[in-house]
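Progress report, Aim 2. The chain analyzed during this reporting quarter is listed below.
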Amino acid sequence: MKTRECYGCKGIYPERSDLEAYATYGVGRYGVAIPECMFAVSEILVKENELYGYPQPAHRLIVDAVGLQHPPHRDIQEKLGIESRFIDASIQSVWIHGLGLYCIFVKNMSAKQAGLAMKKTLDTMNRLRHTFSELKPPYDFGKIKALNVQNAVMEKELSLEKYTQLANQWAQSVWDAWKDQHAAFAELYEKYCGTE
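Predicted structure tokens for the chain:
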């Protein structure tokens, strides 16, 4: 079986030629993930909705883990012909999903509170027309990838508790991988949310 590496999370996926639609799914539209990886994410979220109805905090953790595992790769994005607005969105995505995990793992916020902090930050930055600078990503994005989670949820019906534990492990591994940028996420939080 032929495989290919996701240029985002660096996960190794069985190569498929029938997933063109997933090139524009989720963060895939930014040119930061291969269709096979985005298909795995889609399968996770479909199963999550079917079994649990997008439960919090698991859903928040998974979405943030995916976003933070797929940072900009400007050379690949340019080769793919990705528009500059989508490259800018991929830069913003890392900051906002990193902020989400900062709120959960450092500030001990609920998923709902983290979502509100992310929205407040985005709304304020858009209103003030501030832009995000590109963060240097880690070499390794953590041991857990979408394919691991997809396999776990498709093999057997996990209880909501087990699913939430898996989401937490995935997000924690991604958060730990970004340790060199934790201070940047803390600064973003203090700048836009720290006065509450």
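The chain has a mean pLDDT of 95. The chain has one domain: 3-192. These observations will guide the mutagenesis work planned for the next reporting period.
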